[in-house]
């Protein structure tokens, strides 16, 4: 679904935070208790101030003045301690809640099918993990606290105002309906604009991530200017929506501020008249004015918090939209298990596949049986379906019709961990992580001992270059392994598969872009890797299929020829022979 798809304006997404908040209920209740104490201390201040001013200006009693001032300091001390405890408890709980939500979102995303990631940019996803969750964190850490505090100030302040002077209270409260109306009027516009801003941030970060990930291609074609222009256009779109949001917020706060503090001016005028008439003391007027300011500030803050709430609902919608995404490939409800060790018998039975439900089939009626330990090469023109078939075996996608079995069990009836644990993949362009060499090899089996990792590296002929590095195992490979050559990365990828020790290997032309020396090392490693393992070899260069026991030729998603390398080469009118002649 497009990030610009119209979303529901219901605040329901925030209610889904409840299960995450529940474990911290006790801490939050304690924090709320101290928040009430701090708010009560704040509400006591104007009442104490009233007596302090009357003692100074009406009674002219120095002893009473000193006692009231000391009492006021005690009120401030209690307020300070209460604020410290509630902020500490609330902030620490919020950090844990958001960390849990961020972990759950990442864990959900990492298990989604590859089809999901073909529709989304990684930069957009990381934006949701960072900026959207940061907005939610701000909401939980400050919004809830301020909402409670300002609500207490509003209710308590109004109550104290009625006790102090009911007539002035009615003048102050006349603005409340106006403020509430403004909050609802502007709130929807703020939420819509905030969601638009977050969407466009995700798009911009996705484009930047794509450009940085392809930096060599960008620079080799000298397209820095074009990429900058694309990013500038996205930022221009972002700024337009952000300015609209800022304009809405500015107008909202200006209206609320004018109305709220305008009422304070009316109270000053009306109260001053009562003081002049002798119906009100100066201390009482000052105390009432403080309560009026508390109420006005609370109304203004609640209006602001309402705007922040609308923005947070937009962020929560985007985050929970990800959590609601369902993988297209799922574990079976009652997975089957292999009777013993995996033998590696693979069979494709009338397999057809299309990437989109309403799209054309890219694989048509493929039937192919691979015996345990057999090496089968898939050959054909670009787009013939070789890589697609190889992706169906580990269930990166599910077949549209037909079935694939491993040791006689439909792979859709196996748990994904079980199925993929039996398969090792050596890609044409291996991906390494930005850790050490040892970490990258041990990625196949994190609990492996140093001796097992060393054995895998030696089997893959990776130790030859590792031992020459100053840091050996601890040498960092850089992002995506940029500090290593293509042949070195390939040998580490092969070492991973040796360490995994799978029954089935999918080999995607691992030597097609290597120099002669690297190719020799990799070929030697592959010879050892394929011994005794069922292998599906995707061949881009026909010279590599000589190691295959059988060659399967594909054309437009169909099997058109099958046989050994020499048998197919002898068929001069066959597709394999024609492809071989073309080199």
Task: Give the helix/strand layout.
Blueprint: H1 12-15, H2 18-21, H3 25-59, H4 62-110, H5 114-119, H6 122-164, H7 166-173, H8 176-213, H9 215-220, H10 224-276, H11 282-323, E1 346-353, E2 363-370, E3 375-380, H12 386-392, E4 401-406, E5 409-410, H13 416-421, E6 423-426, H14 437-442, H15 450-459, H16 463-466, H17 486-500, E7 504-508, H18 516-529, E8 534-538, E9 550-555, E10 558-563, H19 565-570, H20 575-581
Parallel strand pairs: 3-8, 3-9, 6-7, 7-8
Antiparallel strand pairs: 1-2, 1-4, 4-5, 9-10
Helix pairs in contact: 3-4, 3-6, 3-11, 4-6, 4-11, 6-7, 6-8, 6-11, 7-10, 8-10, 8-11, 10-11, 15-17, 17-18
Quickly list its features.
elongated, 583 residues, 6-stranded mixed beta sheet, alpha/beta, ABC transporter transmembrane region fold, 20 helices, 4-stranded antiparallel beta sheet, Rossmann fold
Your description of this structure?
The chain is an alpha/beta fold and 583 residues long. The protein has two domains: 19-323, ABC transporter transmembrane region fold, CATH 1.20.1560; 346-581, P-loop containing nucleotide triphosphate hydrolases (Rossmann fold). 62% of the residues lie in helices and 10% in strands. The chain contains 20 helices and ten strands. The protein has a six-stranded mixed sheet. α10 (224-276) runs antiparallel to α11 (282-323). It is elongated, with a radius of gyration of 35 Å. The chain starts with 11 loop residues before the first helix and ends with a helix.
Strand order of the largest sheet: 6-7-8-3-9-10
Q: What is the alpha-carbon Rg in Å? A: 35 Å
Structural class assignment? alpha/beta
Topology pattern, helix = H, strand = E: HHHHHHHHHHHEEEHEEHEHHHHEHEEEHH
Query: What's the CATH topology label of the largest domain?
Result: ABC transporter transmembrane region fold
